[in-house]
Design brief:
The complex is a heterodimer. Chain A is an alpha+beta fold. Chain A has twelve helices and 31 strands. The longest helix of chain A has 19 residues, at 29-47. The chains are: A alpha+beta, B alpha+beta. The interface between A and B is medium-sized, with 30 and 20 residues.
């Protein structure tokens, strides 16, 4: 049998008709992998109508819109806290948004917005406190009350970025423990963590967004939710797609929505998401038959606190799920922070819902974009090297060590720049070099000076100066123009002063 | 078997462990020891077949001995497995069939490395 891979073999209406009649064939992505391996994608496409996926992990960009109804006299809430956690109030009088990462200042890193959402879903009582400035139409200035989710008019989970297609793994090169959003990372590559469910991940099973789009009905937090559209930082070209999702919090379950505490980082919310992939063509059967080893990612060094963290090695979800990762010719333990057990449970639950006629597949009303980019932050007003440099103390290469030493003492500096007659940089000598020269009996400047000097251009940003100093373990950077002429020097003391003057 | 010993402030100066080891001719492994204003607390590993007589010898010297489970995972656990990478004695492990994370309480030495790493705060050291 030959057939165009993208030729439609069934429609969503046909699948829904089969769900209604109880004759639909639904399998989880893990089961589909085996079916495709055994029978090939064409046969698998013929047999399977729907593949279910699942993921359960920390999704910081999560939160819920709540509406409290009006008190009497009414209040236009200005500042509002739920169990001590501040909610965002920038909407109408009694609407607010509780975000997962906002923490209770009295219980930092232990209790936050994610926990408030879990407590709401669990039916627990939430203590609400709100302040207001009082208006003619909303005169009340303070309200304090205890409510449960039943008392709210609406409780809508609305998460701007969930269900990353895949994510990098994390380890730590530093000689100390670090606490990150990727967990507790032991010194000297002592362990590694990762996130995501690999072959169970929703977007990995529909990498070209053929079936997942605006309006797709999904499993969300144990209830029914919908895809709103692409999530923030959606980066389809790098296969790092994300989803914005919403659903009725009142119908969700605390089993699939859990507040999380990351020591030293903050709080978050674990969200359970499951998405059905209708097998509309052979290509989708092939895609949902993917293997964990096909899902590549990088192990990054979180010991380097930069936007672009160094890649320790390339890896894949099969290796990550194996529990052991080879780094530096030794094996280190690796485990997820997301839950594979619950991801599998979600895919199974969604499958059961479909098989029992409780859940129907929806046609997206709009596709997810394939061309958006994830850009870094534009930061304005950062100081440049020429703004933080000091005048450089210089000497010529003909001068003696003694003369250089005298000038270092006289000018109270730690670095002296060696220049030629045109003012071009030839080398650098530090007070430590002089000490060493005395100890080892050198007399000439060129015997002790460093000639491979790390420099900066006047327009380089403060951040870049700090990075260079860190990388080369040095305490000063000569500032040179395009011709190599010395303009000044940036020192660690100078940077400390600049930072000290900053308002944080 | 692991036994927790409690020394009150009056006997904290006495070499009780060495004296019991010599009396019984038994190897005792000290896994953790701390002394503070309440006295001393020691986590001791005793060969399984000698536990009763060693505990009796400690009690004779006024040292309280507690045989109990040292760690528990409560029902907030989501079986992510992060704790497994932090455990120095492989007390935490995953049941590969069910994907469930479990603890072998007998192996735990209560180092506490896993406790602040658990995003669900599901690991409880029993003291």
């Amino acid at each position: 049998m030959t057939r165009n891979k993208h030729g439609r073999i069934r429609t969503i209406e046909e699948i829904n008709e089969k769900i209604k009649q109880g004759s639909v064939v639904a399998v989880t992505a893990e089961e589909m992998r085996m079916i495709v391996e055994e029978k090939g994608p064409e046969k698998a496409a013929e047999e399977v109508d729907v593949v279910t996926t699942g993921t359960f992990g920390a999704m910081c960009s999560s939160g819920a819109f709540l509406n409290f109804g009006h008190s009497d006299p009414p209040i236009k809430m200005d500042k509002i806290t739920l169990n001590g956690v501040e909610a965002y109030h920038g909407n109408a009088a009694v609407d607010c948004y509780i975000g997962a990462t906002r923490m209770d200042p009295k219980r930092p890193f232990e209790y936050g917005g994610g926990h408030v959402i879990e407590d709401l879903v669990s039916g627990k009582t939430i203590h609400v406190e709100a302040e207001a400035y009082g208006t003619d139409c909303y005169p009340r200035r303070h309200v304090e009350t205890d409510i449960t989710i039943e008392d709210l008019n609406q409780a809508i989970l609305c998460n701007p970025r969930n269900a990353y297609q895949r994510y990098n793994a994390a380890t730590n090169s530093r000689d100390e423990v670090i606490y990150t959003y990727m967990g507790k990372l032991l010194p000297d590559f002592g362990n590694a963590s990762f996130s995501g469910s690999g072959i169970l991940n929703p977007l990995c099973n529909d990498p070209d967004y053929e079936t997942i789009g605006v309006g797709t009905r999904i499993f969300l937090g144990g209830g029914i939710g919908y895809v709103v559209g692409e999530g923030t930082q959606h980066d389809p070209k790098n296969r790092l797609g994300t989803l914005m999702v919403k659903g009725d919090l009142k119908k969700m379950s605390p089993r699939y929505l859990k507040g999380a505490s990351f020591t030293g980082y903050g709080t978050s919310l674990y969200v359970g998401i499951g998405i059905p992939i209708p097998i509309l063509n052979v290509g989708l059967a092939e895609k949902t038959g993917l293997k964990d080893e096909d899902i590549k990612t990088d192990l990054l060094d979180y010991g380097v606190p930069r936007r672009i963290r160094p890649i320790v090695k390339g890896t894949n979800y099969a290796e990550l799920k194996s529990g052991k990762l080879e780094v530096d010719r030794r094996e280190i333990p690796v485990q997820p922070l997301s839950s594979l057990k619950l991801a599998r449970e979600i895919a199974e639950t969604l499958k059961e819902w479909i098989l029992s006629g409780k859940f129907y597949i929806s046609e997206p009303v709009e596709k997810l974009p394939l061309d958006t980019e994830f850009k870094p932050m534009k930061v304005t007003g950062e100081p440049e090297a020429h703004m933080i440099m000091e005048p450089a103390v210089t000497c010529s290469v003909e001068e003696s060590l003694r003369e250089a030493a005298e000038r270092i003492v006289q000018e109270e500096v730690n670095h002296i720049l060696v220049t030629d007659e045109g003012g071009r940089l030839k080398g650098i000598v530090t007070s430590f070099d002089i000490t060493k020269a005395v100890a080892e009996g050198f007399r000439r400047l060129d015997e002790v000076m460093t000639t491979k000097v790390v420099t900066v251009k006047p327009g380089e940003l403060l951040e870049s100066c700090i990075q260079k100093m860190e990388e080369h373990n040095i305490s000063a950077l000569p500032v040179v123009d395009d011709e190599g002429r010395v303009m000044g020097i940036v020192t660690s003391e100078g940077i400390a002063k600049t930072l000290g003057r900053r308002r944080f | 078997m692991k036994v927790e010993l409690r020394f009150d402030t009056r006997i904290v100066n006495e070499p009780a462990i060495t004296s019991v080891a010599l009396e019984k001719g038994v190897l005792l492994n000290i896994l953790r020891a701390q002394v503070d204003e309440h006295g001393g607390r020691v986590l001791l590993e005793i060969p399984d077949d000698r536990v009763d007589e060693v505990v009796e010898a400690f009690e004779r010297r006024g040292v309280k001995a507690y045989r109990r489970t040292l760690v528990e995972i409560n029902d907030r656990c989501i079986s992510c497995g992060h704790c497994i990478t932090l455990c120095p004695v492989e007390a935490l492990y995953r049941d590969e069939l069910e994907l469930t994370v479990r603890v072998d309480a007998d192996k735990c030495i209560q180092c506490g490395r896993c406790v602040d790493a658990c995003p669900m705060r599901a690991i409880i050291l029993l003291i």
